[in-house]
Design goal:
Length: about 60
């Protein structure tokens, strides 16, 4: 499970970097840039949630 979480984090980081390159910083909320901004935010949320999952699993192991 731990390896799967790290694979998901790597995929999310890859998507974050890829979509960051697709953002037009002149007009970030117009056209295809809107989709890229949404995808960047979604990938960042996935990374944060997986990081929280890892922390909670570590705390659970220490409680036992």
């Amino acid at each position: 499970m731990k390896i799967f979480i790290y694979i998901l984090m790597a995929l999310a980081a890859g998507l974050l970097v890829y979509n960051t390159t697709k953002i037009d910083f002149e007009a970030p909320l117009e056209g295809d840039s809107t989709v890229a901004v949404i995808c960047v935010l979604a990938a960042a949320c996935v990374i944060v949630l997986l990081w929280i999952l890892i922390a909670s699993r570590t705390i659970k192991k220490k409680m036992k």
